[in-house]
Amino acid sequence: MKYNDFKDIGLEVVLKVLKKIDDEIRRYRELEDYEGVNTLEKEVLTKYEKLYGAFSTDPGENIKDYNFESIEKYIYEIMKENDLSEDFINSEILKRKKYRGNSGSEAVENLYKYELAELDKKKSILLQEASEILDKELKLETELSEAIQEDEQMEILTKLPEIRSSYNKLSKKIMKLHDKMVTINEKLEKKWPIDIFGTISKDELLKVYKDAIK
Which keywords, in A-to-Z order, does the entry hold (predicted)? Predict the structure, then answer.
């Protein structure tokens, strides 16, 4: 078997393992086991992300530098470790080709892009609100520096903490939105979090999602 013929097998195997790891990481997060999350991400996930990158790009002439037999042997070892039969992998490859253009991958990618756009809108609104609060704070600080009477100063000083508290709350909301956007962008850039849904149709994925939230 030549590398180009084996490439689809290697890619499908790696995607199946990445899906499994992703599910495990999600479970650890739900249990708030952040040490487990960190271990999986650093010691396991990164290895398979590199394999995904290798199989999802065309090595071209550089294939001569690869020890193909070693790669093939390694992939079959991964299949054995994860109870993935060759028949199953081949059937998944056929499904991926069948659903291409109308698969769960396209649905997930569109969803991520929609979520990203919505989060960006919310972030813009909050940034505008934060800017207005800073303007109010600056105005109060200016008034404080110009105030002569003690009662005027006290009135301004009682307003400033509330203004600053509002700004801090907004800042936290903005950071949460920013973190969500970073996470989604990473998924879009890495591609595998999208490609793992390529062996199911959009309709099937939607049904699974609806059943999960019942």
Answer: Plasmid
